[in-house]
Amino acid sequence: MRIRVLGTAAGGGFPQWNCACINCREARKGNEAFRPLLQSSLAISANERDWYLINAGPDVHQQIESYPALHAGPGIRETPIAGVILTDAELDHTIGLLSLREGSCLTIYGTENVRKTLHSSFPVFPMLQSYCSWQWKSLDPECLQQIGPSGENNEETIIVETVPVSRKPPLYTKWKNEEFTLTDIWEVGLVFHNKKTGKCLAYFPTLEEITTSVEESLMKADILMIDGTFWAEDELVQMGATERDARNMGHLPIGGSGGTAEKLAAFPAERKILIHINNSNPVLKIGSNERNALEGMGFEVAFDGMEVEV
Fold first, then answer.
1. Which of 268, 266, 265 lies closest to 219, judged by CA?
2. Domains in the chain: how many in total?
3. CATH code, 170
4. Quick check: pTM over 0.85?
């Protein structure tokens, strides 16, 4: 099973061309210690013919163009992209669906809350019903599910495990007009199992807390790709960008007591990779004290174009 990192950046803030933080300023100047990043997303395939995007952000076309395996053809409207798997209904993970409307045979996977939202508050499916005929399949946290074509060759399918992460709804959701409750799960992590090798990769771009179910998923994974949004609890507060700290925004900070690095340092995974990184995070700077400390603990910082195999 091959996984390609199409994008590394966290959403919700200014894109780098319009951002004043030091990471973006230096990236625009061409400082090699900083790298401009695309929106956090993966491409995954069990057979390197049928590919699934994990989330679809605003720069999905640029991400597809950056990876030849995703290029269309040779037939008209023929594409190796078989579907999209959504971890939540946030705009930075779903707005790219509008740009994929020419892919008329896609299968979209997500939780029931995501499905309801994409038919109502952010009505992607009603808007696109005249352009394409996508198939929807709901992800169920109660069971393992097969992603990909059914048939005798199970080695060409991906088994996905859905793990609840957060009850934080998208800000655009209109609660008075929706059939949702405060106990609904809005964000999930995904564990991808390769039946051929027996290995798995855990993808948690949002990590609000390490619950028992999250810990069990991370403990058994061979590769971790986990929430690296913020280094410090008050990172954006100190910048004057917001009054909410990292945890209030639904993200465990990486550093400090009780942070992601401290909690996961002893986990047995072969590789521990931070992804979904905000442009304010000092770990983006190669050679920074924070990045050096992180790498000294056995963690990696994802980059656009990184590839792993499971």
1. 268
2. 1
3. 3.60.15.10
4. yes
